[in-house]
């Protein structure tokens, strides 16, 4: 199948590309934008961030933090924002500075829900922990993006 241009079927007047998260614990990723296309793999992590890179009708072509791309139904996506730890270890701190006490350590692959993001730090929630993490070593934000 030929690659579809960015924004084809742009039905919600939202920008493409944009970051979103997975709505369900299991999300089928297909090779094309309909149920006739085979499932290539299944995401198994609710709230994991993905980037929408194209749209067609009710289907969204997404890219994950490792660069893999495929099509998912829009019902499986949420506008809630999250990040995934891509570095070896990220320290969550009580406040947005390196001198603040550590709250938790986040290992590679852990997903954190974003509360807000400043230019250098993001306030996040992981399980029962809340705190601030530096924007280095995570994926799910555009450079210099601020979330209030």
Key features of this structure:
single chain, 148 residues, mainly beta, SH3 type barrels, 2 domains, five-stranded antiparallel sheet, 0% helix
Question: Would you spell out the secondary-structure blueprint of this structure?
Answer:
Blueprint: E1 18-22, E2 27-30, E3 39-43, E4 49-56, E5 59-63, E6 69-73, E7 77-78, E8 82-85, E9 89-93, E10 102-107, E11 111-117, E12 121-126, E13 129-134, E14 138-139
Antiparallel strand pairs: 1-4, 1-7, 2-3, 4-5, 5-6, 8-11, 8-14, 9-10, 11-12, 12-13
Characterize the structure shown.
This protein is mainly β. Helix content is 0%, strand content 47%. The chain has strands spanning 18-22, 27-30, 39-43, 49-56, 59-63, 69-73, 77-78, 82-85, 89-93, 102-107, 111-117, 121-126, 129-134, 138-139. The strands form 4 sheets. A 5-stranded antiparallel beta sheet has the order 6-5-4-1-7, with no helix packed on it. A 5-stranded antiparallel beta sheet has the order 13-12-11-8-14, with no helix packed on it. A two-stranded antiparallel sheet has the order 2-3. A hairpin with a 5-residue loop joins strand 5 and strand 6 (69-73). The termini are far apart. Mean pLDDT is 92; it is low at 1-10.
């Amino acid at each position: 199948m030929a690659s579809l241009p960015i924004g084809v079927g742009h039905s919600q007047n939202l920008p493409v590309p944009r970051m979103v998260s997975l709505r369900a614990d299991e999300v089928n990723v297909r090779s094309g934008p309909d149920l006739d296309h085979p499932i290539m793999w299944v995401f198994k992590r609710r709230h994991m961030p993905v980037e929408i890179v194209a749209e067609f009708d009710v289907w969204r072509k997404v890219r994950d933090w490792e660069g893999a791309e495929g099509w998912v139904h829009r019902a499986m996506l949420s506008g809630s924002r999250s990040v995934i730890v891509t570095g070896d270890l990220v320290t969550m701190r009580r406040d947005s500075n390196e001198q603040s006490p550590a709250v938790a350590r986040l290992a590679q692959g852990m997903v954190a829900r974003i509360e807000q993001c400043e230019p250098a730090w993001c306030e996040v929630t992981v399980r029962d922990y809340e705190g601030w993490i530096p924007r280095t070593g995570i994926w799910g934000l555009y450079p210099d993006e601020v979330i209030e």
